[in-house]
Design goal:
- By secondary structure, the protein is an alpha+beta fold.
- It contains three helices and eight strands; from the N terminus they run βαββαββββαβ.
- The strands form three sheets. It has a four-stranded antiparallel β-sheet, covered by helices on one side.
- A hairpin with a 2-residue loop joins strand 5 and strand 6 (89-91).
- It is elongated and about 70 Å long.
- The model has no long low-confidence stretch (mean pLDDT 84).
Amino acid sequence: MVIIVRSGSDTTTVENIIHRVSELGFTPHPIYGVEKTVIAVIGEKTQEKIAVLESMPGVERIVPILQPFKLAGKEVKVEPTLVEVRAGVVIGGNEVVVMAGPCALESREQFLRIGRYVRAAGAKVLRGGVFKPRTSPHDFQGLREEGH
């Protein structure tokens, strides 16, 4: 569920709500927005606990969240999540960021060669796996002489 805090509520009111959420056995995730403060609440809910929270000063309303991805959903945080991978490369913004690379790294030279191709093709992020899963973990026969 998400607790929508009444506009104009002071810091003490918000802290009191967060404290009460914790006391009731929930995990609070406050999100301070430009226009509203909301508190995402994770945990087992009962009607009694919800009623306690609804009656608190500063609580505008409580909104249930039905999706399993509560903290990533737009009900909790309207603004998009931006992840800065490195200077000038932000995932989640308006620019499409292409990430490319091999499924499994076999050598430093291979990774650097693929990295040059990836950069020339316009990708901003080079990725590479260090373990390549197979159909069955029992299929792997080891690196033999190469592994020594």
